[in-house]
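Example record

The entry below shows one chain as it appears in the dataset: sequence first, then C-alpha cells.
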Amino acid sequence: MTVILHAKVVAKAEHAEAVKKQLLAIKDDADKKEEGCLVYRVNQVVDDKNTFILFEEYANESAFKHHQAGAAFQKLASNLTEWLAEPLTMTFLQASQL
C-alpha cells in the first residue's frame, strides 16, 4: 500500500539554513538512492522562511522505513531538538479517486 504524507518542519531562525540544507540533502538521497520513493518535495513558505512543507510518497511502508533509516534523515533527526522551533508534524494521507 502506498504511503503518502505531508510534513511541516519549523526551524529556529538561527538554524533555518542548516535545516534547509539538510532537507535538500534528504531530497537528493530520496531522488537518487531510494527506489521506493516516488515523490519527495521540499517547499519553503514564502512569507516564513523558517517553515518548510514536505510532500512525500513511497511505494510501500518498507520504502518509507528505509527512507527514515537513511543517513541524511538520521542527521536531521539527531538535531531536531537543537534546530527546530516546534515538533516536526507528519500527516499521513490516503490516496483518493477524486
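Notes for this example: The radius of gyration is 13 Å. The CA atoms of residues 10 and 51 lie 4 Å apart.
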